[in-house]
Write a structure and sequence with these properties.
Elements: H1 2-11, E1 48-50, E2 59-61, E3 68-69, H2 77-88, H3 94-102, E4 108-114, E5 120-127, H4 135-152, H5 156-173, H6 177-190
Antiparallel strand pairs: 1-2, 3-5, 4-5
Helix pairs in contact: 2-5, 3-4
């Protein structure tokens, strides 16, 4: 029906306007309280709000840089999963300690490697109260915390804990039908 309507307008030498749905939920993301414009750390591009049905938390993504990580089958994929757990996996993880416990900037931090067959994303997000906490302050603290790990690495103790927790999570995940299905899907993807 759309194609026919366009051809009909074209035959009459009339204009037709098509409105294309943009990627993401909101192409422009501003703080409702202070007007802060969320931009990508590596460019002046605005971040786009995504509200996927598969995640309970919306997230911001830069469509210019995207912060791509390798596909799940790549050799670095496991290291990124361990890094994600070290930074974000528990209340003793680096970002949680820095942003929630030490600086009181956020009430929750989360994220990690979102790898699949194609290059994926490494997501990092925080939930914070707008009362007196500027989004730029949280973003700066996040980048500083990640920068510490990039500069110094993780300790042997943090690495051992992450490996134990991820292994236990995998083993206990096999107790459910969904966990078994996920493991079979991962095995198929990684071959």
């Amino acid at each position: 029906p759309l194609k026919n309507a366009l051809l009909e307008n074209l035959a009459k030498h009339e204009q037709s306007l098509l409105y294309l749905n943009r990627r993401g939920y909101a192409p422009l993301t501003l703080c409702r309280h202070c007007g802060y414009r969320f931009t990508s750390p590596d460019s002046s591009a605005w971040m786009v709000l995504h509200k996927p049905k598969t995640l309970s938390v919306p997230y911001l993504l830069c469509h210019h840089s995207g912060y791509k990580i390798p596909p799940r089958a790549h050799a670095d994929s496991d290291a990124l999963e361990v890094l994600g757990f070290t930074l974000l996996g528990s209340e003793t993880s680096g970002l949680y300690k820095d942003l929630v416990r030490d600086q009181d900037l956020a009430i929750y931090v989360g994220g990690g490697a979102q790898g699949n067959e194609d290059p994926g994303l490494f997501l990092v997000y925080a939930a914070f109260s707008p009362d007196g906490v500027a989004p730029e302050q949280v973003k700066t603290a996040m980048l500083a915390s990640i920068g510490k790990v990039a500069a110094s690495g993780v300790t042997a103790k943090e690495l051992a804990k992450a490996k134990r927790q991820l292994t236990a999570g995998y083993v206990f995940g096999l107790d459910t039908v969904e966990g078994k299905a996920d493991a079979l899907g991962d095995a198929e993807l990684l071959e």
